[in-house]
Specification:
There is one protein chain. The protein is built from 2 helices and 11 strands. It has about 160 residues and is α+β, with helices and mostly antiparallel strands. It has one domain. It starts with a helix and ends with a strand.
Length: about 160
């Protein structure tokens, strides 16, 4: 009987956690209803919640950041169209070092409340946290950015104005 109650309690905690994570993901992205007729990426707003990206504390990425969240498809409403092959993270060999790196995009919020998008290239460091090799930021009311692979070592980052 105790085991049954323990299992039921554990199942309830897991279910609550799943629901809470889904709500957090939904709250990360909101789409303004207007102006109608504008593409959704011109109306999207992000509400970052994370304190690290790829294991790197946000203060170590940029000293004035308080929150940042890497973009993932499951954070966006299902009805938004992602059929054009754009990505939020791409692995590749982006310099002549021969070491595989990862380009990631996401949203950040400064400790002063300003938001923007970032493109970051990180390199694994063995057992330690990854090294930030490149950080590019874009501020604006609707900062959205995606990546596209051009060839083996070239990517393009597209930013919504």
């Amino acid at each position: 009987m105790r085991l049954r109650r323990s299992l039921q309690a554990a199942a309830a905690v897991i279910a609550a956690s799943v629901c809470m994570n889904a709500a957090i993901a939904q709250d990360f992205v909101t789409v303004d209803p207007k102006p109608q007729g504008h593409a959704w990426w011109l109306r999207v707003r992000f509400h970052p919640t994370g304190t690290e990206v790829r294991g790197i504390p946000v203060h170590d990425i940029a000293a004035n950041w308080c929150r940042a969240t890497e973009f993932r498809r499951d954070q966006f409403p299902r009805e938004l169209d992602f059929s054009d092959g754009a990505a939020f993270a791409i692995d590749g060999f982006f310099d002549d070092s021969g070491i595989k790196e990862t380009a990631v995009t996401g949203a950040y919020e400064t400790c002063g409340g300003k938001t923007g998008s970032f493109l970051m290239i990180v390199r694994p460091q063995g057992e330690g946290r990854p090294e930030v090799r490149l950080l590019d930021t874009h501020t604006g009311e609707h900062p959205f950015r995606v990546l596209r692979r051009k060839d083996g070592s070239t990517i393009s980052a597209e930013t919504a104005p």
